[in-house]
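Dear support,

Our group has been running a series of protein-ligand predictions, and this particular one with magnesium ion is the one our PI (initials K.S.) wants archived with full inputs and outputs. We had some confusion internally about which version of the output was final, so please treat the block below as the authoritative record. The input we submitted was:
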Amino acid sequence: MNSQLALKTDKLTKTYITGKIEVTALKDADLSVKKGGFIGITGESGSGKSTLMNLLGGLDTPTSGTIEAEGKIISRMNKEELALYRRYSVGMIFQSFNLIPSFTAQENVSLPLLFAGVPKAERKARAAEALENVGLSHRQRHRPSELSGGEQQRVAIARALVNQPKILLADEPTGNLDSKISHDIAELLGNLNQSRGLTVVMVSHEEPLLKEFAQGIIRLRDGMITAREMI
Amino acid sequence: MKLKDYIELSTANLWKTKLRTFLTTFGVIIGIGALVSMLAFGTGMQKNVINAFNAMELFNYLMVFPEPFSPKINAEDLILDNEAIGSFTKLKGVEAAFPDIRFPAEIGFRDKKEFSFIQVLPAQFADTKLVQLRAGSVYEADDAGSMIISDSFLRRLDIRDFERVLGQKVRLSTLVLDFSEFNPLDLVGLLGGEKLPLTMKNYELTIVGVSERMGMGGPSLLRSDVIISPTAADKMKKITMTNLWDLFQQSSRKGGYSLVNIKVSSPKYVDSVRSKVEDMGFRTFAIIDQLEEIRTGFFFMDMILAAIGMIALVVASLGIINTMIMSVMERYSEIGVMKAVGARDRDVQKIFFFESSIIGFLGGVFGLGLGWVVSLLINRVVNYFLAQQGVPAIDYFSFPWWLCLGAVGFAVFVSLVSGIYPAMRAARVDPVVALRHD
Ligand SMILES: Nc1ncnc2c1ncn2[C@@H]1O[C@H](COP(=O)(O)OP(=O)(O)O)[C@@H](O)[C@H]1O
Ligand SMILES: [Mg+2]
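Confirmed final output from the archive:
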């Protein structure tokens, strides 16, 4: 693998079998993302975007094909290794923020550190720092229900980055947000990409946003890559 | 993840559903409380019985019978007389050896007549822990006119003030085989058990002491309602009878006793003394041999009591399973989030195991407390009512350290077992499904 690549897939295929129905959500997807790159993914609903993101994030395993991330072959990892990959190497954010409602912002951000066995005092300090980096130092003790949608997505970003992964996977992070806030979030991801060299893969329906911040756009249709555009 | 983190996280999760956690834990409290009080009762009873045996030094006794120890020995040669007793006394560890003589008689006191066995016991043995006096004192060595009566005999007469009977007279009517008035023609009737050639002889003795007659399967040695000195017994015409055979062996035995008790200074001498006595040809019996059987008996009693206590605990464990499964289903997406940020299956599993074991631990500790309080109350009530019957107060429940630790340990164990299935379900949650928003 080219050491300049953060992510690379080869003939990546995922077929879901529910009862007798087979759905090929992703078919022969070849894609590569440079280290420090920002790639946008777009496509209609059901085109396989989330499937691709879950495979890249190690949440799911492919039916065939390979995935490499930061030089490691993810597609060959067992469940245990995948958990550690998710813990240390990749951060994920979602359309529906997926914060734990009973936890404060700081506790939500601390969660990956908890599983990493980081001592409590250090967890607190690192979570506070991560929240500061997304502009939320004044919201440490707030619960998700006390935060706006944009603030909740910032907490989710802080959580995804608290273990300092090299890759951030954002699956429609602005899907639940109005256009002004969506722009803010995309801008935050762009800044993180620029200032820290964070590799970002972002799924979005809003092409103007992708065009503004991403270096390339991949179009998916019925599980297949139909177009690659460089900006 | 560190132990402290698991405990903190699990406690926080349980605290989120306070009422449900409390109700589930309360089920465990009741289960453990029932189990603990049942076992405390079993343990207490065993302790009481063993203590009573020890207090009476029953484990220090060996019984010797004038019967051959092995079939090779000729029964004719075995005579259990004063000479034999003398040789027993010389054995190492033997404190004393004394003949045990009992004979049937009718005890007449006030307006009550009761047929019972009279125990003959030399004064020096009556003056040991063997006879627990509740009033008065033991008779003098050669006192032919005195006797000790049991508290239970007096209680049957509704006498509770034992001091008052001291100095009063009791009539003993012994049975005497009297062939002088026996008509040989009645032999057929005799064999049919109709017309035994028995007559009664009356004697009057004075009560000098009141003894405690042990219940609860106490030794035959002390089961008599009346204890008299050998001097008093010698003066009476009577049939001695330790067992039914004596009635028929009476004439054939030339001298000798039907039973001799040996008291050793410590139970550790029982085996060596016994083998020497058996070398002399006599058959022996020691209550200490029954200790294992007593223990086994109590073990089965404990098992039955535990089984009753377990019913409540099984119900409690179903409660834990129910609560934990509900918790897993409610926190489905939370589990997905934990996995997405790097929790391994076993990390998730452990979180749920910790939750159920915290329920178990709290249930165990408070259940132990509940069992203890309930036992204390029952003990009070029982002792209060028995005190009115003149029974001295004892602890019917015992809480040894192994029972206390075992109760908490078992509660945690049961809750861990109850948590297996829910924790496995939590570990198997597919994060892709749990995190999908549509
Ligand atoms: N766990 C699953 N089981 C069965 N089918 C699935 C599953 N996940 C996704 N699919 C199907 O795969 C296709 C792609 O879904 P998805 O990747 O979620 O699309 P997108 O994110 O682009 O909307 C859809 O037809 C969807 O119904
Ligand atoms: Mg999607």
